[in-house]
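Q: How would the structure tokens look for this protein?
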Amino acid sequence: MHSIILTLLIFIPVMGAISIVALRSFRSKDSSHVDSRLIALITTGLQLILSLWLYANFDSSVSISESPFTTQVPWIPSFNIEYFLGVDGLSMPMVLLTALLSFLCILCSWNINKQPMGYFSLFLLLDAGMMGVFLSLDFFLFYIFWEVMLLPMYFLIGIWGGPLRIYAAIKFFLYTLFGSVFMLLAMIALYFYSEPNTFNLITLIQTASSIDAVVWGFNVKYLIWIGLFIGFAIKVPVFPFHTWLPLAHVEAPTAISVILAGVLLKMGTYGLLRISYPLLPGEVTSFAMILAVLGVVNILWGAVNAIAQIDMKKMIAYSSVSHMGYVLLGMASVVSTSTSGAQAGLNGAVMQMFNHGTITAMLFMLVGVLYDQAHHRWIVFPDDYKDKELAGKLGFGGIGTKMPVFTAFVAFAFFAGLGLPALSGFISEAMCFIGGFSAFRTITVIGTLGILLNAVYFLRAYARVFLGPFNEKYSNLADINFREVGMILPLAIITLVLGVYPKPLISMISTSVNGIIDIIQKVL
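A: Here is the predicted structure in token form.
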């Protein structure tokens, strides 16, 4: 079981997608919706159970090379390409997050009526690609899974998205593909300049530091770092590569927005930590200041843009840009001369990757619940617009009295998003600031302004939509139902538990984080 579980985590969704397509020919058109969503729910449910079993039997103190949860067999021997999978404290939280959100997103997509067979089969292929990225320990395999995600996401946005879905899908595809070209060049350079020639990430950690070549007057390792950084930065997204994200979020279906913010953004920072940091520690120390500055720019730029939005979904999209800035700041603190500061910063960064995934998933799901009934997401007051009649039709106002349970969930998610103490976002953001302050004091102080700006856009949106006089135009709104509660409640529980008792997550990641810190500290 130990040797096959990682393969099952990746390929169970693939088998589910094949089953959906195969059963379509044996069922009537009217029943294809039910068949597709049930198969997708069972498939992602099995994947979630396997990921929980993996977590229950996972020993975070064991290095990945000694872990029983590895699969390593030759794939293309003539080029030293292996089917090499493994899990450690860095990837385990992402495996759990991917499995959980994939399962909940099937519930979130339960009412999809447009070509359900295509939707659910593509979603399962996307799920397989995401899981493959987090489990791959061969760079060639990692790159394949990274690219596998492009096509399903392109079609999921381009077919099931909003009015500008085709433009949003093309923009997402081109941005990601542009970054992938640089990643491919960096991967090939690592292969040819390392000795022996290999894509094995464990071996490359030991050999990449010995690369000593110059091309076009530049050190090859520095060029490799830049190539990898561009590829991963676009996915995060790091300013100024962020412009694809808000449009993709606004046009994507709710479940795809959840996956975009909850999982796909984390792949950028995961790639930096899994590949760039241990392979190129010298370049990390040279680039740390720039990474910290970019992190603070993300925090402030994303927050300021979020304040300016009148669409709740776009506001949350820009808030994701802002909150990923905390991850970048925590990652930059790895060069701190204080070991405790470096540990706090990098632990906070990895925790923020997980915590932001659960919180932003809640936010997008809740906005989707409201949109399904009202068919818009506007945050407007009549007094803000010259056309009072139009603003009155678009503005919600006071729906807290009509949807009290839904309003309570939104308040919880908004407070988690702005980093309220006793909720998981506070713990991870505080640790990122502790680490950042130990390494880049002035930059971090500026970055703390993001806390205030976060409160502005969340509280503003809450007041305009849920408080004040009730707009009778929305008297037909119904409160959140049991299926929707089932989507939100697990994420709310995780957010609360990890906010009060973060030890399980810290214990899971600390050994892997300390290993990265040790590699970086040796070159300082």
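Residues 339-374 form the longest helix (36 residues).

Residues 380 and 395 are 5 Å apart (CA to CA).

Upvote if useful.
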